From TrEMBL:
Domain spans labelled Actin-like protein N-terminal: 8-186
Descriptive protein name: Uncharacterized protein
Family matches, as InterPro entries: Alp7A-like_C (IPR054368), ALP_N (IPR040607), ATPase_NBD (IPR043129)
A Pfam family reported for this protein in Swiss-Prot or TrEMBL: Alp7A_like_C
Source lineage: Bacteria, Bacillati, Bacillota, Bacilli, Bacillales
Domain Alp7A-like C-terminal: from-to ranges: 210-349
Database matches in SUPFAM superfamilies: Actin-like ATPase domain
Length: 385
């Protein structure tokens, strides 16, 4: 019997965050792909073995779930070095994009090739996973989670490593024992109040009326929580994320300073790093881009604040709003300033950047592990008289 391995994967717009097994392995890969050809040139085959596989992910993906089957891709860091790299577009649905699945399969395959526990014949590894993942609230409300799950389960998805350090020539056949797709807002709540064993760690929050504003790359979810449940009717998803603003910053920096940034992730790095924040190097000189970032991000923060205000007005007995997700990390200072100057809502951000960015992956891990534990429990025998 091919034993199933647990995987919790947050396909974020900026990057993929994945947790495997008994918390023994994590992966974080930029969510960028670029179509490619089979014969990617490599300088010296010896050099290939010494490189980090994560810097040279070059794969062919075969899956009945893909619209564009059997295509070849550069993924993550390698894709940023091309002219045809694609990131998820604003307005697109995460559940319907090939890119979401390509990133998901690549991440799982990178885990599978590290293990000895999966059956392997010649260069082919047969890997089975129990997957916990999620979609924006808006897509779950539209019922897209069921279609997304059915595309994954019941099919075999193959990832073939082409010119990838250490893994060249290996193929991974991916199957899913079970796939659980959680709404992102609900997942954030679970992460706030429970530990890895789903024991309550935050008693203060359990019976409070809470909003959770999860700002992602392409969308924003506001979960409304009362009586320990997410109120599905009141919860709202919006087509407003940070991607367009990051793209606008990248474009203005290119026009004004002639500096080409590889991806939105580079923009995030400039905005959020501890030292030299909002500065870039132009022809070897340290140059401020504060004027560009402040104007564009303040404009987005105002829109996000408007969403908060509208939802809070409809849920007037709310006690606190938690801001989570990578977008909150980018907009934190701007939203705090607006709130201090305007309504003064009781809002909270996570000062630990990693905690905010990994929140969804951690939540999916807690939820999928709980599912696994419950399904492994021996059933009570039926008593007969």
């Amino acid at each position: 019997m091919n034993k199933s391995r647990v995987a919790a994967i947050d396909v974020g717009n900026d990057s993929i965050k994945a947790i495997f097994g008994e918390l023994e392995y994590e992966l974080n890969i930029p969510n960028i792909i670029a179509r490619d050809t089979e014969d990617r040139p490599v300088i010296g085959i010896e050099e290939l073995d010494s490189k980090n596989p994560l810097d040279g992910i070059h794969i062919k993906v075969h899956s009945p779930a893909l619209k564009d089957n059997n295509a070849i891709y550069r993924v993550g860091n390698l894709a940023t070095k091309t002219d045809n790299a694609t990131e998820l577009d604003p307005g697109s649905s995460k559940s319907e994009e090939d890119q979401t699945l390509i990133m998901l399969f690549a991440t799982l395959a990178l885990d599978a090739v590290k293990l000895d526990s999966f059956p392997k014949a010649k260069n082919v590894i047969d890997a089975t996973y129990t997957l916990g993942t999620g979609l924006p609230l808006r897509e779950v409300k539209e019922g897209k989670d069921a279609g997304y799950r059915s595309r994954l389960i019941g099919n075999v998805h193959q990832v073939e490593f082409l010119v990838t350090p250490k893994y060249q020539g290996l193929k991974v056949n991916l199957k899913f024992n079970e796939v659980k797709v959680y709404p992102e807002g609900f997942a954030a709540y679970i992460n706030l109040v429970m530990d890895n064993n789903l024991k309550i760690i935050n008693k203060d929050l359990i019976d409070k009326r809470i909003l959770i504003q999860d700002i992602g790359g392409l969308s924003t979810d506001i979960a409304v929580i009362k009586n320990r449940n997410v109120d599905d009717d009141k919860a709202q998803g919006f087509n407003l994320g940070v991607s367009e603003s990051l793209e606008a910053i990248r474009e203005e920096i290119r026009k004004k300073h002639g500096v080409e940034l590889d991806s939105r992730r580079d923009v995030v790095e400039i905005i959020t790093r501890k030292n030299d924040r909002n500065h870039i190097m132009v022809k070897g000189s340290r140059t401020s881009v504060h004027d560009i970032t402040d104007r564009i991000l303040l404009d987005l923060a105002k829109k996000q604040y408007r969403l908060l205000r509208n939802v809070w007005q409809k849920n007037s007995q709310t006690e606190i709003c938690y801001f989570v997700g990578g977008g909150s990390h980018v907009l934190k200072d701007y939203i705090k300033t607006l709130n201090n100057n305007l309504d003064g809502y009781n809002i909270e951000f996570f000062e630990d950047d990693k905690e905010s960015i990994w929140m969804m992956a951690n939540a999916y891990y807690k939820l999928i592990m709980d599912f696994v534990r419950k399904s492994e429990k021996p059933k009570e025998p039926v008593k007969t008289n």
